[in-house]
Amino acid sequence: MPLPRPPRAVIFDMDGLLFDTEVLYRDAFFAAARGLGRDMPEPLFHSLIGLPGDSSRRLLLDHYGEDFDVDRLWDASAAHFHDIARGQEFLKAGVREVLELLDQLGIPRAIATSSRHEDVAFNLGRHGLEGRFHAVAARGDYPRGKPHPDPFLVAAGWLGVDPADCLALEDSHNGVRSAAAAGMMTVMVPDLLAPNPEMDALCARIVNDLHAAADLIRLSLGRA
Q: I need a surface site. Which of 16, 46, 94, 223 has the fewest CB within 10 A?
């Protein structure tokens, strides 16, 4: 089935959606926690997915205690991530197909992410995707992060497209909540987190990968 409306813009999450980074971040966080003499349970890491920095900090302090050095954990995990990611590609399947389709259709696109602009630039540059997005709403560009709607609303505003006419592609529960709260046609492409009844209710569709998302765009625009 097609989307409720033909999309006039597409807004992408980044980690876990465009790039297979959530697994890399997980391994980096686990290694960093071990280096600090702590264990990081996988459910704790899952609870951090899609959250902005201040919310993630609160969860970590609640788990480890108020005296825990969150910044040291983040710095160590960033170093581990770059060590793991160096020399390898981690582009998700279907990304280039979707971008080429949007080029053909003349549909603008943006990224709405909880990550920093530096991380976006690193990931795009690593895979030769510089200049393929018309806007990037990253940490610091909006007052409230996901699951609030602000990242997606800012991205839609920069594209000049009504949020109701935007297709939002997300992999995380908090990201889906954010995009749905922004009033967008939300499609979940699951990564580490499986869909649940809440996601079923919030999403226009749930698809297996970005190849299927491209097919959905074609169908919704009568190009199937």
A: 223
